[in-house]
Design the sequence.
């Protein structure tokens, strides 16, 4: 991690790379993250935090390019579909053990 | 050189040994769309297998930021360039994608690393086209990743915009990698001491430390650079696929095969690992209810990493949907467009199978879907979406149920204006 200032004559120095990208790709990336995290059960505040915080480089880059309003719209659209359901996971009882009630085995 | 059948390339190819197929094959699917580069997988492996002296530079599991990152640095660009040199403008796919288990992506018309060795390398004994990375190229599991850190001298505070160096102003994605436990391993092909072997019961590729003399031929040959040299023992080492877990010897599972450390630790829930059945001809035996078989051969959303190298790798990836297609086609072959299309417009069954990722650390052998009523129909960014209250049940190798997932009643989200109304 670059704690010190960059040293341009160090061959191991990190370098940034610019490749052509388009707004359509940025939009698609933002939509992909919103949909995936909505499917994982994250809340609106949690997903928005991913975009707003600089540590999540991909999502944050999209937030800076598209702006808060567009990101909020993308997140809300995703939650309107994937946020309406909650998946629950129910473990099978352990082998040979008495069958505990479902609510004991349930995780969400 | 003997000839073997490579189903991913849809053709025969030369390989230094006759084909031998395991009864089951260690395989995995990673869903790149979900990876957040948290490196929990990387650290799970590190803290289990490579924390000793002399292993400091070793990351059997790593996650790198593509297109610019790599461990070792530029590994894929360098081997692609060598292949291009060996066969200028000839590294192309032809034929048509087929529905069969042999040649599902068409036919690779270019040259593999084994074939290129025969035409470009001297002495003749060199069996695989590769290169030996320099020591300093192994220095970080994700070199060129610009992790945001605080300004120098400012404690407990991150940089507000996240970057200190020139930023990567582009699309990117995180590529998680481990050894692919290839069906035609380049590491095995290159070892002059035959210290590397592929296990007949699960296809895991292991490197016998007692036989290894540290010639580093495997390090040079593996196109994925997943065999690594350890200076203080003067031997090479590689991912062992956490074989004690896969064998079911961990007391926690009572004999059931368990997924590896790097799989079980995955925060983004991108990973699923299994043991697929292999047919006599080396293709995957039809096993319709196995989740990996479904993802690779039925839904066709998961594709091998750089199949053109020719090792028939057993790691499969659901490609990131936002990345330019030419880049993805080079990395995953011609199946990319269909894979992304299926992933973005998922079938009812695909949605169900995606629910199986990371719900348990047991290896799922088979799944069943109990269909329930439709709970939602609508559209999202122009795509039709239907959601069903289907119950997905996962079974282990012993045939016993491991878990089931289902949908709780739909949640009706009230608008802000009526948040408290009944
Ligand atoms: S990925 Fe490399 S080290 Fe692993 S089996 Fe294939 S050739 Fe060998
Ligand atoms: S399978 Fe096991 S040994 Fe291999 S990379 Fe993952 S944790 Fe490491
Ligand atoms: S643990 Fe999973 S989400 Fe995190 S970096 Fe590894 S593969 Fe990606």
Sequence:
């Amino acid at each position: 991690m670059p704690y010190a200032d960059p040293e341009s004559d160090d061959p191991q120095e990190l370098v940034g790379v610019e490749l052509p990208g388009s707004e359509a790709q940025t939009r698609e990336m933002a939509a992909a993250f919103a949909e995936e995290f909505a499917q994982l059960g994250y809340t609106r505040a949690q997903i928005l935090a991913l975009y707003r915080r600089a540590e999540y480089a991909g999502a944050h880059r999209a937030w800076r390019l598209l702006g808060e309003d567009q990101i909020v719209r993308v997140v809300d659209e995703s939650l309107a579909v994937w946020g309406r359901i909650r998946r629950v996971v129910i473990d099978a009882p352990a082998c040979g053990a008495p069958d505990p009630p479902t609510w004991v085995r349930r995780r969400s | 050189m003997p000839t073997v059948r490579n189903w991913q390339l849809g053709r025969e190819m030369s390989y230094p040994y006759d084909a031998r197929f395991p009864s089951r094959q260690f395989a995995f699917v990673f869903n790149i769309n979900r990876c957040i580069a948290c490196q929990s997988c990387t650290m799970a492996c590190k803290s289990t297998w490579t924390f000793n002296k002399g292993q400091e530079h070793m990351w059997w599991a790593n996650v790198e930021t593509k297109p610019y990152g790599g461990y070792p640095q530029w590994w894929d660009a360098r081997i692609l360039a060598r292949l291009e040199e060996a066969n200028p403008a000839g590294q192309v796919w032809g034929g048509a994608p087929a529905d069969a288990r042999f040649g599902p992506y068409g036919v690779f018309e270019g040259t593999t690393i084994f074939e290129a060795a025969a035409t470009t390398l001297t002495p003749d004994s060199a069996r695989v086209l590769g290169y030996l990375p320099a020591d300093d190229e192994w220095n970080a599991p994700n070199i060129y990743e610009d992790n945001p850190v605080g300004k120098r001298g400012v404690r407990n505070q991150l940089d507000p915009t996240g970057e200190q160096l020139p930023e990567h102003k582009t699309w990117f994605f995180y590529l998680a990698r481990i050894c692919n436990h290839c069906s035609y391993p380049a590491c095995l092909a290159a070892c002059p001491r035959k210290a590397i072997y592929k296990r007949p019961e699960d296809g895991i590729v292991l490197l016998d430390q007692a036989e290894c003399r540290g010639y580093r031929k495997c390090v040079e040959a593996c196109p994925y650079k997943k065999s690594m040299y350890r200076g203080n023992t003067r031997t090479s080492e590689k991912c062992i696929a956490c074989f004690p877990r896969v064998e079911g010897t961990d007391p926690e599972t009572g004999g059931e095969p368990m997924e590896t450390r790097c799989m079980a630790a995955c925060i983004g829930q991108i990973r699923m690992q299994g043991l697929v059945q292999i047919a006599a001809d080396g293709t995957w035996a039809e096993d319709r209810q196995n989740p990996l078989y479904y993802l690779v051969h039925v839904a066709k959303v998961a594709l091998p990493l750089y199949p053109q190298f020719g090792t028939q790798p057993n790691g499969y990836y659901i490609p990131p949907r936002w990345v330019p297609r030419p880049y993805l086609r080079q990395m995953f072959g011609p199946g990319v467009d269909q894979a992304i299309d299926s992933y973005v417009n998922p079938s009812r069954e695909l949605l169900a199978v995606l629910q199986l990722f990371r719900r348990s650390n047991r290896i799922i052998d088979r799944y069943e879907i109990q269909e329930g009523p439709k709970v939602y129909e609508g559209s999202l960014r122009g795509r039709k979406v239907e959601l069903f209250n289907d119950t997905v049940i996962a079974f282990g190798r012993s045939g016993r149920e491991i878990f089931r997932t289902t949908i709780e009643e739909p949640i009706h989200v009230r608008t802000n204006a009526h948040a408290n109304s009944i």
User: Anything to note?
Assistant: Helices of chain A lie at 23-39, 44-52, 57-66, 68-82, 102-105. Chain A is about 50% helix and 5% strand. The beta strands of chain A are 87-91, 106-107. Chain A touches chain B through 51 residues (CB under 8 Å).
